Write the structure tokens for this entry.
Amino acid sequence: MYTPEIYKNENSEEINKFLQENSFGILINQSNGKLCATHIPLELDVNKEGEDILYGHISKENPQWKGFTDNDQVLAVFSGPHSYISSSWYDHENVPTWNYIAVHVYGKIKIIEGEGVVESLKKLVDKYEQNSEKPIRIEDLAQKTMLQSRGIVAFEIKITEIQATRKMSQNRDAKNYQTIITELEKINTDQSIATAKEMKKCPI
């Protein structure tokens, strides 16, 4: 991912927090000579060897998984807040742009089988059920229901490289930076408010 130096984020703590909070990503690989992409939750974790990984699963009916064994190189893409930035908000002439946060995770994928499949599902469900009034637990599901796990391909991705971009108008002076925040809040969409909130975390 091309990222000018001013927008690079190399703070591993911030990146990990971002991945945990924005875990619905896009898994990309090559299968049968074609690029394939699937939108799925990809959870950050550490394996038994102490290596940083992403874990997840896709349907067996999805042909993308057949490329995992032919070429284990994959890319996972994660997006955060983003919004259009009008140059009419500046006190000088310039071009419009876009503010956004994105993380690209490169790694080597391997298929998980046996008890590892259930363990992967358990961690995923526990994470997203923790705030439910009546949380569901994998351990409590009937054997008949759990037979559906035969229809998925679970995997883990050993992370080899992370590229993170945080483009939030860092190249503007304090006056224009604050104006951008104000104008984003005026637009009052989910994305514009989230972008403004992100900009407020690191005021100029």
Remarks:
- The chain has a mean pLDDT of 96.
